[in-house]
Amino acid sequence: MSGDEDIYSRLSPRTRTLAMLVLALSNLMVVLDLTIANVSVPHIAGNLGISPDQGTWIITSYAVAEAICVPLTGWLAQRFGVVRVFTLAMVGFGIFSLLCGLSPTLGMLVAARIGQGICGGPIMPMSQTLLIRIFPPEIRGRAMGLWAMTTLMGPALGPIVGGYISDNWSWHWIFFINLPIAVLCVLAAQALLRPVETEIAIVPIDKIGLFLLVFWIGCLQIVLDIGRDHDWFADPMIVALAVMAFIGFLVFVIWELTEEHPVVDLRVFRHVGFSSGLFTLSLCFGSYFASIVVIPQWLQMSMGYTATWAGIVTALTAMAALFTAPIAARLMSSVDARLLISCAVAWIGVMSLWRAHWTSDISFGEMALPQFIQGFALPFFFIPLTSLTLGSVLPSETASAAGLQNFVRTMATAIATSLVLTEWGDSQRVSRSEMAGALQPDQTQTLLGNLGLSADQARQTISNIVEQEAIVIAVDHVFFISAIILFAAAIIVWFAPKPRSNVDTSAAH
């Protein structure tokens, strides 16, 4: 009996099925937490007495912490064992979820979200590794299919669940609901997965590389998060942080390219297919995530939507993706991945152009339609792009490439959130100024006065209308820029050579 067959025989079919459900549930919880807070930002900001801009630190802190921790996953698994790392990560995730819900200040909430991200980082790749470990190749596809569905369901359920909880209970419960799931997954992992624990090895870790990674990403994220409030490079502190981020990045690149055991293997960038595919991924994922951030805040702040309904509008895209995911997986074997990616990205770009014409009197149905139609293209972008990037590197580099791919995708989310909100705010100010200059307030005030409004009421009415229209113009501006980026990405992907057909995507996470 081979080693692999011995591992498969350690678990009965019933135990394997239960383990599969637990691993899929753990993955769903982590993916859910990336988007569940998006629609709750206005609630959290109002409760903690902070601006919605500051509230977005709740999103970016989680994403950045997760991105930093992902490259360490392979080392942690070798050093402590896959099951042990998975279990401890779930314990930490549950503890930090509790602290998030108990947070009375923004500082504590952001610190707890960073802890959540650090613990959540290994859960997704570890759950995937364990699925591959417990299922033989002939039935592994079905298990991985269920796991992949949770990756798509997370963004769909997150805004709806977060919106419903914020509207009907309290924002604290978007974090408290993780506790029973974390406890269940920890107990189940100990009961079901201990027989398939991996061997432990003493492997070196690139401490200097890890320090440099945390340093330059931390400086960059502080610049992106507080730059809006400090007039960007007019503030010496922002300039200093930007310089430190740039220097830290350069030193990090040089160190990692010369280190024998790098924390992030940058050598895989020598493959043109991987580089162009990853660049396409970062552009597309950042542009796609822009709508997930902007739409819920706009609908709640300006359009009078509840968090629940704002979440439904946001989630429609991921819901539609569930229908086409199986089709995209089947077409992978017969259609050039670059064609699928290019067409899908261009499709999303067209939907972004469509949304760039939204107005302040738009109906729910008019918003829902492009959101839902956009979702059909998502699987034709995500699934083939994984194959394209991993198919462009050597088989021995697949694990490193997959870790780097996940790192870049997560960082693209955090950076896009900061940049989009900055552009949205700047565009609002410009639009407000232009409209104020074009208005004839005296004539408008007289008209409103004839309708029975006092002078103060008339001025407030004019101010409210200008503010509402400035916000929707800024939303349209963000979507227009997103469309341009997506169309560029649809072209860039063709720089990649045609991927190999026998790609092992099991290392992707």
Give a written overview of the molecule.
With 509 residues, this protein is mainly alpha-helical. The protein has three domains: 1-203, Growth Hormone, Chain: A (Up-down Bundle), CATH 1.20.1250; 206-262; 272-509, Up-down Bundle (Growth Hormone, Chain: A), CATH 1.20.1250. It has helices at 3-9, 13-35, 41-48, 52-55, 57-69, 73-80, 82-102, 106-134, 137-168, 173-176, 178-192, 207-226, 236-258, 272-301, 307-331, 337-355, 364-375, 378-390, 398-438, 441-450, 455-492. Helix 5 packs across helix 8 (106-134), helix 5 packs antiparallel against helix 12 (207-226) and helix 19 runs antiparallel to helix 21. It is globular and about 85 Å long. It comes from Sphingobium amiense. InterPro entries: EmrB-like (IPR004638), MFS (IPR011701), MFS_dom (IPR020846), MFS_trans_sf (IPR036259). Residues 19-501 form the Major facilitator superfamily (MFS) profile domain. This is MFS transporter.
